[in-house]
Structures are given as C-alpha cells and as structure tokens.
Design goal:
single chain; Neuraminidase; 6-stranded antiparallel beta sheet; 2 helices; 2% helix; 43% strand; binds fe (ii) ion
Length: 443
C-alpha cells in the first residue's frame, strides 16, 4: 500500500522527489534472510523547490527500509528538519550520513550539530552530546572495542579542529582542541586503536559554510600534512607528503609500529573525475622511522568505501566500494557498479548489475555478531533507470559477484545520495512507542 500526494516521473537520478511517502509490505524478489532484521537508512540531499543553490546543499532526506523476519515491512522517506539559511549547507542541511549511537538515530552534516530522528524517521531535534560547541563531522566512527563515538568538528572559526570522544550514554567525555595553522577541508579522518589521523590538505577553508559557495580553495604549492594524534593524549606528530586530497577513509589500523590508512585519494580537491579519478590508496605511517610510504592499491575509479564495522580501526581484509563509469571531462558518471576489495591478497571482485542500474554506497551487515569478516550481506540502494524506480539489493558478501539473494522493490525513485547504515535489532514494540524505545533501546 502506498500513500502519497502526487507522483513525480523523472529519469533524472539527481532530481529531488516531491514529497514524503510511506509504503507497507514491499514486494521482494528472491528471499530476504530472516536474520536480516532491522532498519536500513540512507541520507541525501533533496532540495525543496527553490530552496538550494546547489543539489549538494539541499535539505537532508532520510530514506528507510524496514526488514523483519524475511519480510520488507515498510519504506518511508522523511525530511530532516534542521535550521537552514539557503546557502551551501549554511545553517546545516543535515544531508550527509545517518547512523545510530547510544540508542539514538542521528543524521549528520559536517557544518552543524547532528539531528536525532525517531524510529519512524521523524525529526526529534539537534544533539550536542552535552558538550559539542563546534560543527560536527558526518564521519564519526564507533570504536568496536569501547562502543564510543570517536569524532571531531572542523570549522572556519577558531578552534579550527576539535576532537571529541562520546561515551555509550551519548555524552562527551573528552573534548580536545588540535592546533591547525589554517582550517582545511576535513570531510573524513582515520581511527585506529590508539590514534586518530587527519589529512591537512591544500583545500583551505576561506570562510564559514553558507552564502551559496563551497568555502574551500586549493592552494597551489602547498603540500599535504598527515597529523597523527594519540587518542590517550600526548604530542601530535606531523608528516609531510606530496599534495593530495583524502576523500573517504575505508579503514585504518596499527601494524609493526606503523599506522596503515586505506582510503580514497585524488590529486586535488573537487577534481575532474576523468583527469584525476578517485582511487583506493594506502598510506603507511612509520612512527619509528618517521616516514610515510604510499601506494595506489587499485586503479579503478571508486568511492564510498565501507568495511565490516566490527573491524573499524583494526587489521581487516575487505572493503566494499562504488565504482564509477561512463564519465568524461566535466561529465559525471552515468552508471556504476560495486567492487569488493581483498586488501590482503590485493585482488577485487566486481558486481556489475548492468548499465540499467546505478548502485550506491554498499553497507555491510554481518550474518551474526560472531560471524567471520565478510560473512554477511552487502546492502545497496540501486536506481533502475528503465523503471525510474529504486530498489534495495541484498548481496551475499561471500558470493559477491553472484546474483542478489533478494531485491526489495521500493515504490519509487530514491535520488542520488551519500551515506547510510544498518540499524539492527529494532523491536516491534520500539517501533510502536518511540518514547519507550529510548529507555529500552536494544541498539
Ligand atoms: Fe562523506
């Protein structure tokens, strides 16, 4: 059953959908694993008509697909209601990421505080974790050992960079200013068991967010500095590397006195994809010798890398990413596929759905809490350009290149977006009573 006010028919994957809808009992092709019970969420820009000067600045809209005991119970999309001023993310259109921590579902954008959503994706309100007084990253990372949310805020105003540690109760327990000479674009960072790592790049921030323009300018002649910050306190260490831009981090870990950072690298910020394709890259920071060695792990143009988050900050083996294709100078990709990397063997497997489909960021869900790495499912929202509709595809990660185990058909198109996550273990009673679920949240 679908309820909505009007229908938009468009083959433009980027254009916003006109309204919030809800649909129950979604058709499924294949068999949804019964253990895959929870809520898949994805955030992205969905500008209200006339509201945003740029698609990426548009109001955040979270799309949710509720899976339960082999059934696709519902799809729902809701705006994240946050203060806006109409500029490039000015005031914080919360449109970049969504994940759960400390029993709360949180929507993120790097220019503002996170916004809490309830189990039906309705906005609750901004969250400062009891002590965040700066902007807050969209790419906080949950330490699998402690359950803490390790995060930071960066901004044009001083302090330019602040490290935050947020405990299992969702409260700031540590807040530390990290000295930066000048603020720069810090969309993502890396975390290991004992360190956090930032890439201080030539994409300098020249003003605060807002006002209709991207507030970064690439400064020619400046190199990139990798900043290693001990999580338990102590001196930061800075390492010079040739100028580059870190896109998204896949993972990082410690090994033999080195910090290994795997992520997406381009030569510069906001590069033309044809001239400067984003590639999977490894930086090895040798803390004993004080040197950094780096190498490209693969030459396919990829982004949106994700891992099994039980291995966040730890030695790991598998990364799942989106590979772009059919792009040219000043022409964005017309289609995509998924790629799974084995960083131990240096090999990868492609999952190509054909040019009809445009899959987005892959999210890994383990089959059980003690399943081996890669023993799980990969979920991706996929646009079907032939039907002008989206679906949620479920792959078995152990047979990555094989047919999907299930495809959940959504009632209409989900526009291009950014990041999402899987929120496990939502009980039916929690769905029926959000106020109760906050006290007894099983997350
Ligand atoms: Fe991102």
């Amino acid at each position: 059953m679908v309820s909505h006010r009007k229908t938009l028919v468009s083959d433009d994957y980027f254009s916003p959908v006109p309204d919030e809808i809800a649909a129950d009992d979604l058709p499924v092709v294949g068999t949804l694993p019964p253990q895959l019970s929870g809520l898949y969420l994805r955030n992205g820009p969905n500008p209200r008509i006339g509201s945003a000067p740029h698609f990426f600045a548009g109001d955040g809209m979270v799309h949710g697909v509720r899976l339960d005991a082999g059934e696709a119970r519902w799809y729902r999309n809701r705006y994240v209601k946050s203060k806006r001023d109409g500029g490039i993310r000015g005031g914080g259109s919360s449109n970049t990421h969504v994940f759960a921590h400390a029993g709360r579902i949180l929507s993120f954008v790097e220019s503002a505080l996170p916004i809490e959503l309830d189990r039906h994706l309705e906005t609750v309100g901004p969250v400062d974790f009891g002590g965040v007084r700066t902007a807050f990253t969209a790419h906080g990372k949950i330490d699998p050992g402690t359950g803490e949310l390790i995060a930071f805020g960066y901004q044009f105003a001083s302090p330019h960079l602040t490290f935050y540690r947020i405990d299992l109760a969702g409260q700031v327990v540590e807040c530390r200013v990290i000295d930066m000479i000048a603020p720069c674009y810090l969309h993502d960072f890396a975390m290991t068991e004992h360190y956090i790592v930032f890439f201080d790049t030539p994409a300098l921030m020249f003003k605060e967010w807002g006002g209709g323009e991207v507030p970064f300018r690439w400064q020619e002649g400046r190199g990139t500095r990798i900043v290693v910050v001990p999580r338990q306190g102590g001196e930061e260490r800075w390492f010079d590397v040739p100028a580059c831009q870190l896109g998204h981090t896949a993972n990082a870990f410690e090994r033999d006195g080195c910090i290994v950072v795997d992520g997406i690298r381009t030569d510069r910020f906001l590069a033309d994809m044809a001239a400067d394709p984003p590639m999977f890259h490894r930086w090895e920071i040798d803390l004993t010798r004080g040197v950094v060695t780096e190498r490209t792990l693969d030459r396919h143009p990829v982004e949106f890398p994700r891992v099994d988050e039980r291995y966040s900050g730890l030695p790991y083996r598998y990364t799942y990413a989106v590979e772009f294709r059919d792009f040219g100078p000043a022409s964005p990709p017309q289609s995509s596929l998924l790629r799974c990397y084995d960083v131990e063997t240096g090999t990868s497997i492609a999952k190509d759905f054909g040019v009809r489909y445009i899959p987005g960021e892959p999210v890994f869900v383990p089959k059980s809490s003690d399943a081996a790495e890669n023993d799980g499912w990969v979920l991706s929202l996929r646009y079907d350009r032939e039907l002008d509709r989206s679906d949620l595809v479920v792959l078995d990660a152990t047979e990555f290149g094989g047919d999907p185990v299930a495809v959940v058909q959504l009632p209409r198109r989900v526009p291009f977006g950014f990041h999402g996550s899987w929120v496990a273990a939502i009980s039916e009673s929690a769905e029926q009573d959000d106020s109760k679920s906050k006290q007894n949240c099983p997350l």
